[in-house]
Design a protein that fits this description.
Layout lengths: L1 H25 L2 H23 L7 H12 L15
Helix pairs in contact: 1-2, 1-3, 2-3
InterPro entries: DUF6221
Length: about 80
């Protein structure tokens, strides 16, 4: 699961850079306003899971949520089919 969390954080960083490029060249402020907070929250969940002890009662639910969120990057070459929920 740590691999999935790292993968998600890396994709979010890529997306943040892409959105910043769009905003700076095409004026996509609305895009930034709607998507960047969501990406920040997903990154927070991934980081929380990495720091969470496996015995924490929230661990299984958070792992499932990360698997579901990870599906949005299923076409990325680094995505692993074993991460599917």
């Amino acid at each position: 699961m740590d691999d999935l969390a790292k993968f998600l954080v890396a994709r979010i960083m890529d997306d943040n850079h892409a959105y910043a490029y769009v905003a700076s060249t095409l004026g996509g402020e609305a895009l930034l306003d709607s998507h960047l907070p969501m990406l920040d929250l997903i990154e927070q969940l991934a980081n929380d899971h990495k720091a969470m002890d496996a015995s924490d009662s929230r661990s299984a639910g958070l792992a499932y949520a990360l698997r579901v969120l990870g599906q949005s990057y299923a076409e990325h070459p680094g995505y692993k089919q074993e991460w599917r929920p």
